[in-house]
Amino acid sequence: MREKTKPDRLSRPTHPESPVPNISAYVDKLDQLSVEGWARNEDDPFSPVPVRILRNGIEVATLPAESWREDLIIPGHSDGCCAFSHIWPDGLPDNDLTLIDVRLPDGSSAAGAPRFVPSVAAIGGVTAGITGALDMLDHTRIAGWVRDEDRPDRAVGLRIMLDGEQIAFVKANAFRPDLRNAGLGHGRYGFDFLFSSRPGPLTGHTIEIITDLDIPFPGGPRLLPSSRGLDDALRAAVTRATEGLQGDRKRTEALAFFQSCIAEIRRQDAEDSAGLLRRRISHRKRRNEHEQDDEAPQVLVIDDSLPDSNRDAGSVAILSHVQALRTLGFRVAFAPSLPCPDSQLRTRALEKAGITVFQPPLWDTVEAILRNAGNAFDVIYLHRLSNASVYLELIRRLCPMTRIIWSVADLDHIRLARQADVEKRPELKHLAMQCEMRERMAAWRADLVITHSPPETGSLQKALPTAKVVTIPWALKVAATRYTPDTRSNIVFLGHFGHAPNIDAVRWLADAIVPVLQKLDPGLTITVRGSAITGEVLSFARPGLVIGGYEPDIRHIFADARLTIAPLRFGAGIKGKILESWARGVPVIMTPVAAEGLPLHDDQRDCLATDAPTFARAIFLACRNPDFLRKQSGIGKRLIRTHFSQTAINRAFRDVLSQTLNIKLPPA
C-alpha cells in the first residue's frame, strides 16, 4: 500500500492493499477553460488517487486528486481531500473538436468521461479546405491534427516555423481513434512534434505552422509565452532533462544552458529591481536637451552583512547614512558581501523602509550584482576596508561612470598599532603597516572617503593631501525617558565582543579595575552586556563583575543603568556605546581612547580616566554623587542634539554629494 502523509491532515488509518482498487470517480465540469471532478479509493480513502487527463487521446497532465471539497466529506470515511482540477493554460481554441478523457490507475475512465467539449464551431476551424486544431503547445512539444477536406485520404505535410525560421517538416498521419469516432474518416490526421532543441523558456516565441499547400494552419500563428514561474510542468521538464546526464559534454551543455537562464533572470531583475531600464531611459533624456531628466539618483550600499541596529555601531551608522541618502531623493539598494544570519528578518526591515535588498539565491555574489546591474547606480557606497579592498577596483572596471564612496567605519591600522603596544605583540605592528597601505590605496582610489571622527580625517588628509576626505558621524535620537539616578543601580559595560578592543576592556576590568573598585565599595557591581560573547569573555566573571549576556533590545539595558563605562585601552574612531548612552541620558566614565573624536564639554573632564585606579575611583565617586550624574546626563543629551542629529547628517551629505561629487540633487 502506498502511504502519503500531508501536514494539514490528521493521522489516518491504514488498510491492507486490495488486488483491485475500488475507486469511485466522477467528472463534474468540463468546458473550454477547465476540467474538474473527484476520485476516491474507497478501500484507502486517505491516499490520493492519481488521475490522467487526456486531450484527443494525448496525455496532457497527471495529478493527484487531493484538493479539499466540503461536499465530498463522509464522516468516518473520507476527509473530503479527493477533488481535482486542471485548467487549460491557454483555454481550448474556438475551432477545436476536443475529446477529453479522465483515466484512473486501472485504465478505466471516470464517470462522465470521455466527453467532447462543445466548441463555437460545430467542427474544427476551416481555412480553404483545411480543418484542424492544436491540442498542445509548450516549450517541449507541439501536437494536434489537420485534415485536407478536399482530399481526406492524404496526409497533410506541415512546416513548423519558430520565430520565422523553419525547424521541421512533419506529416499529419498519426492514427487518432477519437477523430475516427467523431466521423472524420480513417482518423489518421494526428501529428506530434518534439523539439530537438527546446526554445528558451524565459522568453516568448512565435510558432507558425504552414501546410504543404502554403495555407496557414487554422487559427494562424501562435504565441509560445515565456514561463511566468516554475510551475509543476516546467519543474518536471527540467528534472527530466538533467537526470542521468552522461559524459562531460552533456553536463557542460546542460550547465551552459542553465547559466544562460540565470543570466536572463538576472538581466530581468537588473532592469526591474535595480532600475537599469529606467537608467537607460534617463540617459536618453540627458542626451536630448529639450527633455528633462527627472529620474532619481540611485546608490548601492555594500557591507559585510545586512545592518542590525541592536548589534553594533557600524549598523547604526550605515542606517543613519542610508536615511540621509533617502531624504536627499536617492533610491537605495543594499548588498551583503558575506552570508548573513537572520537575513529574512533584516531583509523585511529594510524592504519595509523602501530599500531594495540584493541577496542569494538570485544574487549570490557582489560581483554578479556589479556585472549585471552595476551601471544602474550613480553611487556605490562601500562600508569598511574589507569591502573597499575587494570591490573598489572591480567597480572601476565594470562601472566606470559610477562614483565610489568609501565609508571607513574606523581606521584599522590605528587600532592595530595601539593593540600591539598594549598587548606587547610586535607582529601586530607589521600587520598595522600593511593595513595602513591598504587604507591609503583605498582612500586614493575612492571618489570620496567618509570617516566618523576628525582625528581620522586628519590622519588621512596628512598622508594623502589630494584625497577627498570628510567627517560625517551618524545620527541618534535623544530618548524621551527621564534619567533618575536615585532609582537606578546598574553599572554597565556594553559592547560587541567580536571586536578585540572590547574583549581587552573586559580583561582590564577583571584584572585591574574591579579589584580596586571592590576595595572602595564591595557593593558596586559591573555588568557586561553585548553580542557575540565568547567563552573567553565568560571566563572573566568574578565578584564585582557579572557577564550578563546579550539583550536584543538595548533600551532595557539603559532603562536600569545608573552609569555606563568604556574602559578601552585601544581602538579607533568614535565609540557607538558612548553615543548610545548619552542619547539615553546615562553618564559615561571613559578612557581618552574611548573619548577620541568626541566633542567633549569642559565639565566632562571628571568622566575621563587613564589608569585602572583612577578609572575605579571615577566610578566610585560618580555613583556616590547623584547631582553629578544628573548634570552629566544633561550634557550628554545636549551633545547628541547638537552634533549627532539626523538633520546635521542630512546636511553634511547634501554638501559633499552636490559639491564634491557633483551629483544633481532636488532643492532642499
Can you offer a commentary on this structure?
Residues 1-15 have a biased composition (Basic and acidic residues). It comes from Acetobacter musti. Residues 1-22 are annotated as: Disordered. This protein is of the alpha/beta class. It has 4 domains: 23-117, Immunoglobulin-like; 125-224, Immunoglobulin-like, CATH 2.60.40; 296-474, Glycogen Phosphorylase B (Rossmann fold, 3-Layer(aba) Sandwich); 485-644, 3-Layer(aba) Sandwich (Rossmann fold), CATH 3.40.50.2000. It is 34% helix and 25% strand. The chain is built from 19 helices and 29 strands. The protein has a 7-stranded parallel beta sheet, with helices on both faces. Strands 9-10-11-15-14 form a 5-stranded antiparallel beta sheet. Strands 27-26-25-28-29 form a 5-stranded parallel beta sheet, sandwiched between helices. α8 runs parallel beside α10 (426-445), α9 (412-423) runs antiparallel to α10 (426-445) and α15 crosses α18. Residues 1-18 and 119-127 have low confidence and may be disordered.
Summarize the helices and strands and which ones pair or pack.
Elements lengths: L22 E8 L3 E8 L7 E7 L2 E8 L1 E8 L3 E10 L10 E6 L11 E3 L7 E3 L2 E8 L3 E8 L7 E7 L2 E8 L1 E2 L1 H5 L6 E7 L10 E7 L10 E3 L7 H11 L5 H25 L3 H12 L10 E6 L9 H15 L3 E6 L6 H10 L3 E2 L8 H8 L5 E5 L1 H14 L4 E5 L4 H12 L2 H20 L2 E4 L2 H10 L5 E3 L18 E7 L3 H21 L5 E6 L3 H4 L6 E5 L4 H6 L1 E6 L9 H8 L4 E3 L1 H4 L16 H12 L2 H18 L2 H15 L8
Parallel strand pairs: 18-19, 18-21, 19-20, 21-22, 22-23, 23-24, 25-26, 25-28, 26-27, 28-29
Antiparallel strand pairs: 1-2, 2-6, 3-4, 3-7, 5-6, 7-8, 9-10, 10-11, 11-15, 12-13, 12-16, 14-15, 16-17
Helix pairs in contact: 5-19, 7-8, 8-10, 9-10, 12-17, 15-18
